[in-house]
């Protein structure tokens, strides 16, 4: 796979991931967050493990270690996301979480002890102001402030996941990493769900349909193939493509879920999307493949 095909794959991956917010929101009406994660990622692991059995059987120590590391990090990220998603709108959740696009270069600046570019700082400022407007827009919702805070934590963890994915996929099989990652997420979520005494399965046909879509579209494709695409492009480039994730989630939330669009929320949407687009289309992204090696 060359870099051009990898970029197309990543765009498709982030579109698929964007649909997960609406599917998860529907399931959270009748299931606890850790149960949704446990069923979703366990089924995804079983399906991909069967399809790519040879790769899984021949998994190297590097692939196994990388998959476990990413599995732990993404479990933390998804836990923040799911508990936050219960409290606020899907579009708001996705927009805030995908501030990772701005956080990645800020993280790199800290790791390399260099000053971030002015463009990055401007994008971060726009995104933060946008989050402020979204916070005001969700203030009337019970638990809205807590939901915003949890999604911010998800964004911070997600940026770490993007950087870590690039690092662990360099010298390992990205498909094997993705499968092990899903298995780790499924096991950890199941353990937490059982400890909390909250494990349950979808009960209706509609719930199972949402779960199947989550498993096949968002997990089997969305999660498992992100390491494949990131193997051929640097982490900052991958972060740029996350812009399609909140666009997908926001459009679906407004058109399908009927989430309201107040003036305050619209301003927040515009500011964050401006930050993402500005970072995407203004200037060249800084390749950090070498600067993150240690």
Structural features, described:
The protein has 294 residues and is mainly alpha-helical. The protein has one domain (3-281). The chain is built from 14 helices and no strands. The chain has helices at 3-27, 33-51, 53-57, 61-85, 90-97, 100-112, 118-137, 144-168, 174-195, 205-223, 226-230, 235-241, 244-255, 263-281. Helix 2 packs antiparallel against helix 9 (174-195), helix 5 (90-97) crosses helix 8 and helix 6 (100-112) crosses helix 7. The longest helix has 25 residues, at 3-27. It is globular. It starts with a helix and ends in a 13-residue tail after the last helix. Residues 282-294 have low confidence and may be disordered.
Summarize the structure.
By secondary structure, this protein is an all-alpha fold.
Task: Note the topology.
Blueprint: H1 3-27, H2 33-51, H3 53-57, H4 61-85, H5 90-97, H6 100-112, H7 118-137, H8 144-168, H9 174-195, H10 205-223, H11 226-230, H12 235-241, H13 244-255, H14 263-281
Helix pairs in contact: 1-5, 1-10, 1-13, 2-9, 2-10, 4-8, 4-9, 5-8, 5-13, 6-7, 6-8, 6-12, 7-14, 8-12
Q: Radius of gyration, rounded?
A: 18 Å
Largest sheet: none
Order of H and E elements? HHHHHHHHHHHHHH
Number of E-state strands: 0
Separation of termini? 26 Å
Helix content: over 70%
Per DSSP, the total helix count is 14
**Amount of beta strand:** under 5%
- What is the count of structural domains? 1
Q: What is the global morphology? A: globular
Please state the structural category.
Answer: mainly alpha
Low-confidence stretches: 282-294
Mean pLDDT metric: 84
């Amino acid at each position: 796979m060359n870099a051009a095909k990898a970029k197309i794959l990543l765009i498709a991956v982030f579109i698929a991931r964007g649909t997960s917010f609406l599917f998860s929101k529907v399931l959270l009406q009748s299931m606890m967050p850790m149960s949704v994660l446990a069923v979703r990622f366990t089924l995804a692991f079983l399906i991909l493990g069967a399809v790519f059995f040879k790769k899984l059987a021949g998994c190297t120590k590097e692939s196994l270690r990388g998959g476990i590391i990413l599995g732990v990090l993404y479990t933390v990220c998804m836990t923040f996301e799911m508990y936050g998603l219960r409290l606020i709108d899907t579009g708001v959740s996705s927009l805030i979480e995908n501030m990772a696009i701005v956080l990645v270069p800020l993280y790199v600046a800290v790791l390399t002890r260099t000053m971030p570019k002015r463009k990055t700082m401007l994008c971060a400022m726009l995104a933060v102001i946008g989050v402020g407007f979204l916070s005001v827009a969700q203030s009337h919702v019970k638990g809205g402030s807590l939901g915003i805070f949890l999604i911010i934590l998800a964004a911070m963890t997600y940026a770490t996941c993007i950087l870590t994915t690039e690092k662990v996929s360099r010298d390992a099989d990205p498909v094997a990493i993705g499968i092990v990652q899903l298995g780790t997420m499924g096991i950890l979520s199941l353990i937490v769900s059982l400890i909390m005494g909250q494990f349950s399965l979808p009960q209706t046909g509609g719930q199972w349909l949402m779960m199947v879509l989550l498993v096949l579209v968002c997990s089997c494709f969305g999660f498992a193939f992100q390491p494949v695409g990131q193997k051929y492009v640097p982490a900052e480039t991958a972060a740029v493509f996350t812009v399609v994730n909140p666009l997908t989630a926001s459009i679906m939330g407004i058109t399908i879920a009927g989430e309201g669009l107040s003036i305050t929320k619209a301003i927040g949407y515009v500011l964050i999307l401006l930050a993402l687009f500005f970072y995407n289309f203004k200037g060249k992204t800084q390749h950090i493949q070498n600067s993150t090696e240690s």
